[in-house]
Amino acid sequence: MSNQYIPQTVEILGILEESRDVKTLRLDVRNLRHEPGQFMELSVFGYGEIPVSISSSPTLEDYIDLSVKNVGSVTSVVHEAEPGDTVGVRGPYGRGFPVREVGGRDLLFIGGGIGLAPLRSFIDYIRDERDGFGDVSILYGARTADDMVFRQEFDDWRSMFDLHLIADVESEGWYGRVGFVNELLADVSPDIKNTYAVVCGPSIMMKSVVKGLKDMQFPDEQIILSFERRMKCGIGKCGHCNIGDRYVCVDGPVFSYDKVRGYREIWG
Ligand SMILES: Cc1cc2nc3c(=O)[nH]c(=O)nc-3n(C[C@H](O)[C@H](O)[C@H](O)COP(=O)(O)OP(=O)(O)OC[C@H]3O[C@@H](n4cnc5c(N)ncnc54)[C@H](O)[C@@H]3O)c2cc1C
Ligand code: FES
Question: In degrees rounded to 5, what are phi and psi of residue 59?
Fold first, then answer.
């Protein structure tokens, strides 16, 4: 019987510098057949293992992308890796976005910082399967313009979707909006009955965005959230990742708001 804790060793095909502290690892993983919103456990041998969202679309069969922000002991070692090095992966894990259920509907993506990673998998999937979905708007905010990730995709997204960007603070060369991403909700007028909002970012951002969506009269079931929690096993065995009576690793990381609105540890 195969051991589900043992990672598969894979080669890093390429590395893209997204921002000063985010790098995308392109990994030699073929035909993974993941859903947008699912995650992998990424290990650096001798250092540890971390959950990371798959940031590439499932329509790409020759590789997967994992986009990693340098925040601590394992992620800093990931940032030292070079093309040709090997890392360990296991997965895909978790429940991703309800891609089939939202087919044909309009989508309003709202991302903050590295929270755009799982959304990018879904957005690029829609780009490749354009006829299956309605109108798409993307609202994205980061601390500064230089902290925005997937900037190489923005022209492509602008040509097909409605893209709005905002930076928390001003910086040299940024002539766009300054403020928090929830403020961009005032720039869109979705047909609420036909629209699902899909949100991922830091918890303070998720709280203010959910409040904004509720003010716009979005039904709880149409607010789809992706959460990050500390994890160990990733497969529902260790109990490290619970929100209330749910395990984020197997019941999530994607939940509709009606399923999690009662949990004080998220919403305070
Ligand atoms: C389902 C899921 C998907 C994720 N997807 C991504 C992704 O696409 N890209 C990405 O860069 N990160 C992602 N994360 C967060 C990532 O797992 C953590 O940043 C990573 O585990 C930190 O490891 P470290 O050893 O470098 O940090 P540590 O040295 O352990 O900690 C450094 C700091 O990071 C915080 N931290 C540690 N683990 C987590 C965690 N799981 N969530 C939030 N904060 C944490 C700590 O509280 C501390 O402040 C995801 C997490 C989950 C649960
Ligand atoms: S990470 Fe072990 S139960 Fe979720």
Answer: -70, -15
What does the pLDDT look like over 79-131, one tens digit per residue? 999 999 999 999 999 999 999 999 999 999 999 999 999 999 999 999 999 99
Distances (CA, A) of 174 to 110, 111, 177, 201: 20, 19, 8, 22
Please tell us whether the domain made up of 106-226 is placed in CATH 3.40.50.80: yes
Q: Is the pLDDT of residue 1 over 60?
A: no
Q: What does the alpha-carbon distance between residue 145 and residue 155 come to, in Å, rounded to a whole number?
A: 15
Which atom of ligand 1 sits closest to the CA of residue 253?
1
Q: How far apart are the first and last CA of the chain?
A: 43
Pocket of ligand 2 (CB under 6 A): 231-234, 236-241, 247, 249
Q: How far apart are CA 52 and CA 106, in angstroms?
A: 27
Q: Kindly state which CATH superfamily the domain 8-93 is placed in.
A: Translation factors (2.40.30.10)
**CB of 228 closer than 6 A to ligand 1?**
yes
**pLDDT of amino acid 144:** 97
